[in-house]
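Appendix B: complex inputs.
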Amino acid sequence: MNPYYFASIALILIGLYAILAKRNVLKMLVGLSIMETGVNLLLISVGYVSGRSAPILSEGITPDRAVDPIPQALVLTAIVIGVATTAMALSVVINLYEKYKTLNVEEIRRLRG
Amino acid sequence: MSDWVAIFIAALMVVSAIFAVEWRDLLAAVVGMTAVSLFASIAFFFLQAPDVAMVEAAIGAALSAAVFIFAINRTERYESEEEGTGWWVKW
Amino acid sequence: MVKRIFAIVFILIIGFWMAKALDQVPFGQDRMLVGKYYLEHVKEETGAVNAVTAVVVNYRGFDTLGEVTVLFIASTGVAALLWRKKRKRTAKTEGSVVLTTGARLLLPFIMLFGVYIFIHGHLTPGGGFPGGATIATAFLFLYLAFTVYEVDHKIFEPLEGLAGVGYVTVGLIGLAIGGYFLFDWIWQTWGIGKENIGRLLSAGFIPIIYTLIGIKVGTELTGIVDNMIKEPEEGGQ
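Resulting structure:
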């Protein structure tokens, strides 16, 4: 198996493990960020064509010597949106901490109500 | 040659991700997450995506970590996990 | 412990399934369909040399408008969730001499680099998204170096709104001239820069829209940093 495919699957699974098994909310968000990086890497490596160069058609690069531009365009915007949504999730976590004084999800579940 | 570079970067990414998830100090975990982003940026460059590499280096490695560190500054730094850190990351 | 074992079994099943699926997708093979059309026609249809930029701004400009809207909503959400009556910077220690001097010296160059990235988005790798992020990094640098620094909200928030309005306005002019939203009127109707593809003054409205996106991304990410670094005063809840 290709190392990039392996790395992206491994990153997605490690992030998923953090979301499922960890109790700290911030650690879950770290896992979510890692998962996002894995998904981006998977998209880019699916669009790669071996032996070709970046899709910038300057001198000497004809269209049949460039890699697929569409996954790159998708990932380009997805990264920026990712950091904005992560910041929003972090502000929810800050509010949660101000209310319950803990970041442990099980304690928060117990304290609720 | 390029195969070995790919294997090396993939291994670094996976190892940093495991550290980021397993370290109990959240500040260290954020640094691990940043390392994943940085190596992913190098991987994007080798996969002929310089645009994505630039955006990942600017955002994944700088702004994302900064936002996480501000949140840790306003909450707490250590994760209280009763089972403790696994032997594979304890040093 | 049960939770952990359950999680490991679950991710192993998902990993096996993903590996099976990716086994059908050989690495590094040419399987472009739409991408081939874009690569072959990008120069005469949009005038941009960088195909990624052409896809982001021209072919899928409406999509990018949606992404910018999501960014705006997320930034507004951060501001709303962290809103308190009295907030200020609470950092006590001033940055070291290296940090403050470096911030003063490097700030114009970082800003210039960000502007360079988003103006040359149609020629070189980069564009509005990394350029805006670089500008936001420059402001983050200032926030880290000086304890009392705060961006000028009277300039920043109107600028953010104007950039978004400008994007929609460019699209509406396209609707009036060419018949659909985000029609590239500068390139296809006026034909400005047809003879110098690969130079700065080409590619129709791509530099204009990428400049607006750069300003919008920069101001919004700076706003997120500003909202997250300020803490409520004691008893000011």
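Chain A has one domain: 3-111.
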